Amino acid sequence: MDKNHFPNVWAAEDDRVDGLAKVTGKAKFSAEFRPEGLVHGVFVCSTIAKGAIKGMYLNEAKNAPGVIDIIYHLNAPEVPGFKPADRAANPNARDFAGLKVFYNNLVVSNGQPIALVVADTFERAVHAASLVKVDYIKETPQTDFDSNKFNDKLLKPRGEYVRKEKDAWQTAEVKLEEEYTTPIETHNPMEMHATIAHWEGDKLTVYDKSQGPKGVQGELARLFGLNQDNVKVITEYVGGAFGSALRSWPHVHAAVIASKKLNRPVKVTLNREQMFTMVGYRPQSWQKIGIGAGKDGKLVGITHHAVSNTSTYEDFSEGIVNVSQFLYECPNVNTSYNILPLDINTPTWMRGPGPGTGCFGLECALDELSYKLNIDPIELRLINHADVHPHSRLPWTTKFLKECYTPGKEKIGWHNRPTVPGTLKEDEMLVGYGMAVGVFGAGRSPATAKGVLNSEGKLLLQSAVSDMGPGTSTAMVKIGSEQMNLEESKVRFELGDTDFPTGPTQGGSGSATAVGSAVIAVCDGLKQGLKEMAIENIAAFKNLKPEDIKYENGKLVSATDASVFIHFTDLLKQSGKPELQVSKSSAGFAQRDKYVTNSFAVHFVKLQANPVTGVIKLKHIVSAADAGKIISEKTARSQMVGGAVGGIGMAMTEETLMDHRFGRYINSNFVDYHVPVHADAPPMDILFTNEPDYIISPTGAKGIGEIALVGVAPAILNAVYNATGKRVRDLPVTPDKVI
Ligand code: MOS
């Protein structure tokens, strides 16, 4: 493959447009707004996992300095949307599915918010909250996933899939069946969730950490019975989220409830411990994979079963087993998936949801199979490469997965990999190499954007999306600048305000294609508007049609006579218009009957294992990705690096632990819950095929966010086996499991 397909993105100079604001503290995150009269709400949380509140003793807290009110189920204003839906009036009406904060006295998980103490300062609210005493009617909680994962009385089936023969792997010449397990993993973005709510009459303004301001606006309108236009949600900056801000959680509703009751702005900020009990997590999972191939390496069958946990009040599921249905060409595949309700808070999507867990199972199983077959794991994947979707037989819009293997393999030094595990040493350390594939859905959802082009030559773009960190503004500025041939410094992208045109919730690696397509539509609209303006206002263009005019480097040029031209800034001035404004929508991807759409990545790992202590030291990670066209090299690389670090956490350090006697998390803080730090992250090389996919969208992009993480954990586990000969199938791979 041409080397140019893999630019060395270290060298890129394309800084983030919001980088300066972020590093200087100028960027305002949701908790930092100070509306006049702001007061502070701090939660009192349940200390039992199941039961009911018998009584709350509030006097001491009420009399504490600065306390304004204590809101709980007996005095909270009614939330219309919490009431059971009126299906007589609307047959399609659905009940609110999440935790109904302050709705009744039931306790459904430990750490559930049961009261909000509001005081004039945050510190006084924290103190008063500590004075609230609660009497409970206790019931025995069931929080133990491991002992209930086959409990037919509890399990809720999420569907079965059968392609040709069920369990055909058993008939193969070479086969294995193994179980793979993952713990609860908590998002833990740097910025903790925070909401400021402010009612003014029937108008509600909310500053909220959110991946989708429009989604929050819609939900709050529904819950509180408001016209959507009367709800304004502002999310200027987000300090990471990874899925925890894809929906709005009890603290958002509590801030709105409190502000309504007190008729003044109320801020609710979660602390780190509350981040574990209120804003979701990657569910615990069990997978069992049976896989078999002929001696030639051709897959005969895959059987993939999975169970993951949910809460008792909400069914959360994710596509864990789906990867086995399409990642490789395999004639016989069957999968099943169940969810297990437990007395803990509801899980949610976390970076690479579904395939993140599923590829851990499948890509480890395939690695195990490669040793049994004595075929190189990369070769085994090439033997079973799927050129078309193995079920639908539809083609992918683009698929450059094959093109990721060779450059990645060279960069990591795959030729040094020992074919017999545990046989290579470097500085007294065992050395191993591993690889795994990551995949995630790609697509394009509908989006709307607005563009304002002015006579000073500047372009302002707006859409009501948010940017949790991937660099959406930077990418949109690049697209706007490229489309209008303007310097990047002349283009600005504004987001995070529901007054802007509707954009999608940021998730599933979909922002660049969706919002980018809307920005392209806006730029096309601006060019069209300029042409019409030239015809109307400028004598030399009078007899031309729009299609007779070209837009070139900011100039409107007659297609037949290049000497007839005008720069758009002069056009705007001469037309007496300081600016031209255009709003455009781009539709969602509508060719699902013709194509399959995915981004792909192949992750390579070199690591050292201490044969005495079992400590693993990562030495090098190479991620090669087919993410379509790379719009902004630096932010794309950063996303890949960030995803790999997330994958390191999943593989080696992160594990949310619970004491099942109380159904309470025991490591809900940064001392005991280990997110990877710089010392855990090795040097990384990020390679992109950079092959545009113009079928999915005119941006050419396919999405990066999820494939950056999906596949990293199995690549690490596969390298641990290669180094030590010890196959660990239970995440995270802590030293005790290696020795
Ligand atoms: Mo991501 S789990 O799509 O926020």
Beta-strand segment tally: 29
Sheet with the most strands: spatial strand order = 3-5-1-12-9-10-11
**What is the 3D shape?**
globular
Major sheet description? 7 strands, mixed
- How big is the Rg? 27 Å
Strand content: 25-35%
Q: What are the low-pLDDT stretches, counting only 5+ consecutive residues below 50? A: 1-12
Catalogue the ligands.
dioxothiomolybdenum(VI) ion
Supply the number of helical segments.
Answer: 16
Q: What is the percent of helical residues?
A: 10-25%
Outline:
The protein has 739 residues and is of the alpha+beta class.
Task: Provide structural commentary.
With 739 residues, the chain is of the alpha+beta class. It is 24% helix and 25% strand. The protein is built from 16 helices and 29 strands. The strands form seven sheets. Strands 3-5-1-12-9-10-11 form a seven-stranded mixed beta sheet. It has a five-stranded mixed beta sheet with strand order 7-15-14-13-8, covered by helices on one side. It has a five-stranded mixed beta sheet with strand order 16-17-25-26-29, sandwiched between helices. Strand 10 (203-208), helix 4 (213-224) and strand 11 (231-234) form a beta-alpha-beta unit. Helix 8 (355-373) packs parallel to helix 15, helix 11 packs parallel to helix 12 and helix 12 (511-537) crosses helix 13. The radius of gyration is 27 Å and the shape is globular. The protein starts with 18 loop residues before the first helix and ends with a helix. 55% of the residues are buried. Mean pLDDT is 96; it is low at 1-12. The chain binds dioxothiomolybdenum(VI) ion. Dioxothiomolybdenum(VI) ion binds at residues 211, 242-243, 246, 349-351, 353, 507-508.
